[in-house]
Design brief:
Length: 317
């Protein structure tokens, strides 16, 4: 049996039709010291039967937990409360791992010099799409792990694409997502930002995961537009208040400020009441100037008209 135990967790909501990818890829792993935590976030499909059959087919422990629907961040909290592994991998309910994925990530961590291991919280692998089977995003530079720490982090932030992380369990102790009112999805950046600031990541270009884009129910894709804006604005607000901790600065900080100002008008009335405007003490004239600079908008509770230029602009900066 391998030295390290790896906990893979999957949060699922009405994804019985895609979970076969998860199950088959877990069964195909060359790494054996595993456990799989599955958190059902209030599904109404045939997930129970699929999980029961899956449990009978595998040799590693499977922990199946059910909860009331609350969003991916709440299901992740439940998963983290139940993991027992030295390392943790998040496998989405519509994706799959390549057979060597966990073996590769663990062996990569083992190659980090012992005196440096405490500096790292994560080993990154990369992802390919399900159609062309090509890397999603850009390659990391070959020398990224030899760059000065802050330079490597900056390069990684600017390297686009999907990644999969082998996370060190001890670095997640005591860290949980908040469960704010009127928000049903809290982005991973809420926790990953502070972790990336405190620790280092070992970066690889090895493809270890197949990334699928599907239609249908998804824990991280709320169905109602206003709910989506609640979720986004909550994170932008948090990032603006904690920009140093999250290493949000320069153009990225300006982008979040622009989006916060614009998208807050799309949020629900209850959300705006719960989370007051951050710039309310900056003065009427400054806010009026920001509005003129950033968007042309008319908003009331029944009708919203907004240009898309600001969103296109923010995507470019």
């Amino acid at each position: 049996m391998e030295k390290y135990k790896v906990s893979v967790f999957t949060c699922v909501y009405n994804r019985a039709h895609t979970m076969h990818r998860v199950f088959e890829s877990m069964k195909s792993q060359t790494y054996q010291n595993l456990e799989h935590i599955i958190v059902d976030d209030g599904s109404t499909d045939q997930l129970d039967e699929l999980v029961e059959n899956y449990i009978k087919e595998v040799d590693f422990p499977v922990i199946y937990l059910k909860k009331k629907n609350g969003g991916k961040h709440t299901a992740t909290n439940v998963a983290w409360d139940n993991v027992t592994g030295d390392f943790i991998v998040q496998l989405d309910s519509d994706d799959e791992l390549l057979p060597h994925a966990i073996s590769f990530l663990v062996s990569t961590y083992e190659q980090i010099p012992d005196e440096q291991k405490q500096e790292y919280w994560c080993v990154h692998g990369r992802c390919m799409d399900q159609i062309e089977r090509k890397l999603v995003g850009d390659l990391y530079p070959e020398n990224i792990n030899t760059l000065p720490v802050e330079k490597a982090k900056a390069v990684a932030r600017n390297t686009s694409g999907e990644k999969l992380g082998l996370m060190k369990g001890e670095t997640l102790v005591g860290r949980r997502y908040p469960t704010p009112k009127f928000v049903n999805f809290v982005t991973e950046g809420y926790l990953w930002g502070p972790l990336n600031k405190q620790y280092r990541t070992w970066y690889t270009n090895e493809i270890v995961r197949v990334y699928y884009i599907d239609e249908g129910e998804c824990l991280s894709a709320p169905r109602k537009a206003r709910q989506t804006y609640n979720n986004k604005v909550y994170y932008y607000r948090y990032a603006l208040e904690n920009n140093e901790q999250l290493c949000v600065k320069g153009k990225r900080l300006l982008k979040m400020l622009c989006l916060y100002i614009v998208l807050r008008f799309y949020t629900t009335k209850e959300f705006r009441k719960e989370y007051p405007y951050l710039l309310r003490n900056c003065g009427m004239w400054l806010n009026a100037l920001l509005c003129l600079l950033f968007f042309d908008i008319y908003c009331d509770e029944k009708q919203i008209f907004a240009g898309t230029l600001i969103l296109e602009y923010c995507d470019k900066i």
